[in-house]
Amino acid sequence: MDKNRIIVFDTTLRDGEQSPGCSMNTEEKIKIALQLEKLGVDVIEAGFAAASPGDFDAISRIAEQVKNSSICSLSRAIDNDIKQSGLAVSKAAKHRIHTFIATSPIHMKYKLKMSEAEVIKRAIHAVEYARTFVDDVEFSLEDAGRSEIPFMKEVMDAVIAAGATTINLPDTVGYRLPHELGAMVKELSDFAGDRAIISVHNHNDLGLSTANTLAAVMNGARQIEVTMNGLGERAGNSALEEAVMAIKTRKDAFGELYTNINTPEIYATSRLVATVTGVEPQQNKAIVGKNAFAHESGIHQDGMLKNNETYEIMKPEDVGVFKESTLILGKHSGRAAFRDRIEHLGFDKVSDEELNAAFERFKILADKKKDIGDDDIRMIITDEALNQDKTYELEALQISDCSNGVPTAAVAIKFKDQIMRDAAIGDGTMDAIFKTIDRLTGYDGELKDYKVTSVTEGKDALAKVTTRVSFDENSPAFVGHGLSIDTMLATAKAYISALNSYLSQKERLSKQSPHQV
Ligand code: KIV
Ligand code: ZN
């Protein structure tokens, strides 16, 4: 292994998905995994196979489709977890099992109620068992940030002897300061020597996750566990885009160290993750926030006009942020111009079917909105790709309100080439829409989360609605997406989209063999 290469292990689909409100459905996870592959991520942690049949299904389908990145599944140090992980990743071209147990005094005493000897015994067994499925086994010492070095060395010796190839040292609660984390990594990577790759996984509770990741790299870590947009439990994980761009931009500090990330794919990946989860990075988020390359003050603008380097340390195009195209698309634009713009925006794998459907939607939008910008187009394409399950399709919606009257919704839905129509009253307009859809489809959805964002500025901006809806108490809530210039239409579409995802997953799981779940 090249000593200067930093392995990028992305856990957006596992730790990222653990952020409140970030659950994704299988199709969405596959889209993200394929984009992570295009981004050049070395290892994709695709989920926690034993968590649910849905997780297992998503990991195994990602394992079948991704060819260049290694596919990994997380497992507690428990036989069934490891077995589910082993089965879920079995079809991947390259695969890994990640297993963990806590090693900090506080976790061992209160959470595990286990002695040090018991923890070591369990860790050895977990790694040995994982090795019966795959050759590439990662072992994490959970809460390494608060664990004692001599005990960590004992655990490391034991699990390396049992067959672990990567040792991950998570700062699970985001407690460490960069100089402390750097010192810990130095001592433990010197201790491991060539026996295993040292990895770090830093949480952002004190806003230090990326600083800690970089300190670790400078002190011998050769794998970084990161997420797109910094998603993750609580305050999140170290952001892929920040760690990767710091290593690339500060060659003077990192010397020959490098990652294999194809950085111009960063922005497209960030947008996809934000669209799927409905969680937008804060405007001033490093690298991928809306303002990351915006120059507002006169002094800055003046400097930029004279020489970009006055106020820019990275080129926007190096992370895939391209200047808004000066060629405005409108209702007279043709399919060729539309395809050209899509390719310019980095969507080179759009199928003809997706392109045709997106072009139709573009034409409808162009009738209502004068100028269609890159963000509108990016959103149309992504929405088309995310809404491939079309069991039910919204045909028409009419609402009457509201202020003093009785909120009413009349809805027409297409199902198996038939148009079904109904109307209902509700406590508010949205309630009326959802009740009518429930009546037409026979499902009783419970709205868990609802987000609306505007894709661009202006009164004619597209509204993007993300819903999370639960359709039965035994399965998690499903995410739905709706896009329209009209917020209520986008809302109805997002609710139906969540129902379609639920139905397609239900159908797929009913076809799986029982040993898989
Ligand atoms: O934060 C953590 O400790 C984790 C482990 C499971 C790696 O996510
Ligand atoms: Zn974590």
Give an account of the 3D structure.
The chain is α/β, with parallel strands linked by helices and 517 residues long. The chain has helices spanning 26-39, 53-65, 79-89, 105-112, 116-131, 149-162, 178-192, 209-218, 240-249, 251-254, 266-277, 298-306, 335-344, 352-368, 374-386, 429-441, 487-511, and strands at residues 7-10, 43-47, 70-76, 95-102, 137-142, 166-171, 197-202, 223-226, 392-400, 408-415, 418-425, 446-454, 463-470, 478-484. An 8-stranded parallel barrel has the order 1-2-3-4-5-6-7-8, surrounded by 8 helices. A 3-stranded antiparallel beta sheet has the order 9-10-11. It has a 3-stranded antiparallel beta sheet with strand order 12-13-14. Helix 1 (26-39) packs parallel to helix 2 and helix 6 packs across helix 7 (178-192). The two termini are 36 Å apart. The protein binds 3-methyl-2-oxobutanoic acid and zinc ion (ZN).
Describe the secondary structure blueprint for this structure.
Blueprint: E1 7-10, H1 26-39, E2 43-47, H2 53-65, E3 70-76, H3 79-89, E4 95-102, H4 105-112, H5 116-131, E5 137-142, H6 149-162, E6 166-171, H7 178-192, E7 197-202, H8 209-218, E8 223-226, H9 240-249, H10 251-254, H11 266-277, H12 298-306, H13 335-344, H14 352-368, H15 374-386, E9 392-400, E10 408-415, E11 418-425, H16 429-441, E12 446-454, E13 463-470, E14 478-484, H17 487-511
Parallel strand pairs: 1-2, 1-8, 2-3, 3-4, 4-5, 5-6, 6-7, 7-8
Antiparallel strand pairs: 9-10, 10-11, 12-13, 13-14
Helix pairs in contact: 1-2, 1-11, 2-3, 5-6, 6-7, 7-8, 8-9, 14-15, 16-17
Residues 15, 100, 140, 142, 168, 170, 172, 201, 203 line the site of 3-methyl-2-oxobutanoic acid.
